[in-house]
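Record type: ASSEMBLY
Status: queued
Input:
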Amino acid sequence: MSNKTNEILELYKSKLMPTYAPSVVIASGKGVTVRDVDGMVYYDFTGGIGVQNIGYGNKKVVEAIQTQAALFTHCSNLYANVPATLLATKLVEISGLGGKVFFANSGAEANEAAIKLARKWGAANGGRYEIVTFRKGFHGRTLATLAATAQAWCQEGYDPLPAGFAYADFNDLDSVKAAINGNTVAVMLEPVQGEGGVTPATDEFMKGVRALCDEKNLLMICDEVQSGIGRTGTWFAWQGYGVKPDLFTCAKALAGGLPMGALVSGAKLADVFTVSSHASTFGGNPVAAAAANAVIEVIEEENLLEKCVETGNLLREALQGFVDKYDKLLEVRGKGLMLGLVVDGDPKELVDAFKGQGLLTLTAGENVVRFLPPLNLAESDLEDAVDMMSDALDCLWSE
Ligand SMILES: *Cc1c(COP(=O)(O)O)cnc(C)c1O
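Status: finished
Output:
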């Protein structure tokens, strides 16, 4: 590490609470690459953790932000703004759910809104409030979304957590049935579990949850915070399963790097929230909304849903090649460009080795290396990244 990186990281460590442990200081980004403060360039296959779905510094997004910022950056929700109104219209259109949208500023907040809406609906429909969520799921770090996140490592030390959640096993319909009781109002799941290990729901499971929710008059809530905005080859991952949720949330990639979350409902739940029953000062911020409109436009204009599937297949094939070659690599899983490489051992070892070659990746769960590259990744950039992985694996494991 050279001077500037060390200097900033020392200051960082002395002044920021140690919730994160960064080793790189980013100065700029372009497309799939980021440059650190010492000029080192990396291929970023973390995508800012599923945020940069169209890469860094997209011209359309930058221009949309600049134009709106010069007009006004905020006006409160006492007044309407054009970008957020158009964005809601677009989200309703691309979801095909025929409902309405509530805007928040993050994934956790969008999920918090979904939980509140489900409870409000449940209060008027049999006094029900309990939500079934899944082990290895991830829904955020606010107290309610943390309670929804059935993972001991992030809940530890924060008792008492809000009540009203029951946990089931992912891809196990019987365990969902067992978790349902007279108080249950909803089932909430990630169609592809991200943080928990890049595990897609099976077709059978998604359809089974939908049928179960219909049968028991429960709401099906999809958390699309990581899997949404084209990441798996459809706008939202649930669209790849031929089922419709009652509610879904998105955030990470929605506004091209600006903080924004959205809760989208079907028609049945469009007017459950009423005036003053929920709110957010910055929700529907016009600059974030303008950026989001540009992101969606770029995905449409550049056919990135199709491209995501094609590039996803190429990356999957390359990763499968590594699985075939190395005994310590067990499996490739995921959907589209949300892919995981399952490792027999600590995935951190691989993430560090890839970084050493100039490729940034993430871990997920206990034994998965996660890849979230931009949907518009050029084939030559993919090839470069595969070469970096190949070199890293050779160094690590070839005798
Ligand atoms: C990242 C994530 C969240 C939390 O989003 P924040 O913006 O960090 O609050 C919620 N759900 C899923 C599936 C996520 O991946």
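Annotation: The pocket of pyridoxal-5'-phosphate is lined by residues 106-108, 111, 138-140, 190, 194-195, 223, 225-226, 251-252 (CB under 6 Å).
Annotation: The first helix runs from residue 3 to 15.
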